[in-house]
Amino acid sequence: MEMSSNLSNYSNNSQQYPIINDGTAPKAKAKFLEDFPTIKPHKYQTLSNVQISSFNDFACGNTGIDTFLRHGEGLKFQVDRNKMDSMIMATETQVLGYMAYSLKELTFSIPKMCSQNLKELSGLKAGDKIFCIHYLGVDESCKNKGLAESLVLKALNFCIKKAATTEPSLKLIVLHATIEACGFYEKMGFDRIGELDNGLIEYAYTVKE
Predict the structure, then answer these.
(1) Which CATH architecture has domain 5-206?
(2) How many other β-carbons are positioned within 10 Å of the β-carbon of residue 82?
(3) Do the strands 201-206 and 170-177 form a parallel or antiparallel pair, or are they unpaired?
(4) Which of 11, 50, 149, 184 has the smallest count of CB within 10 Å of its CB?
(5) Per DSSP, what are the bridge partners of residue 99?
(6) What is the mean pLDDT of the chain?
């Protein structure tokens, strides 16, 4: 999903971020990674040729993601052109999970992926930042075993640490989910903002310790 912007008004006096979660998800352990220590996080740039070739066998049930990952230079294009980064969970030979994300600063605009509801509810102002999860997929062999939770936990903990240290203006994690994935994200502590025109559901998570 390519990000672009449109003009929006923000209140520079707003200090509140009423989209609130209870903070329980980041305190949980990424149990899947404890149970399967051979699966480790990788950046696209560090993948071996064997791991890259295993994308051809990756199947998460989302044909869009599966097709994209099987398109040889897709991830490189995503990183270089669309300014996204990737976290890829893999053994030494097989890719099993994938998440694409980016950090966006709000000047006087907000990424088009964000809804009017989010603009109105969040109180975001110029200079604030949003961590966007663009894609998340887990191979069918790892479904319902905790790998997806591990990926999201890594994102949550990364954002909380970053907001507490080098990025105090980082306020929200935002993503758009299919109907089937709503229960998963709500279990992880995300708040439902509303449904978008394309049928996806927008979720946000307030970054706080």
Answers:
(1) 3-Layer(aba) Sandwich (3.40)
(2) 13
(3) antiparallel
(4) 11
(5) 87, 136
(6) 77
C-alpha 23/C-alpha 92 separation (Å) is 33
Higher pLDDT: 204 or 32? It is 204
User: Rounded mean pLDDT of 38-43?
Assistant: 87
Query: Dihedrals φ, ψ of 45, to 5°?
Result: -65, -20
Question: 148-182: per-residue pLDDT in tens?
Answer: 988 898 888 888 888 889 989 898 899 989 898 99
| CB atoms inside a 10 Å sphere around CB 145 | 15
Count of Cβ atoms closer than 10 Å to residue 85 Cβ: 15
- Give 95's strand partners: 90
Residue ranges in the chain assigned as alpha helix (H): 31-35, 49-53, 63-70, 74-80, 116-122, 147-164, 182-187
Give the Cα separation of 160 and 24 in Å (integer): 13
Q: Please report, in angstroms and rounded to a whole number, the separation of the first and last CA atoms in the chain.
A: 29
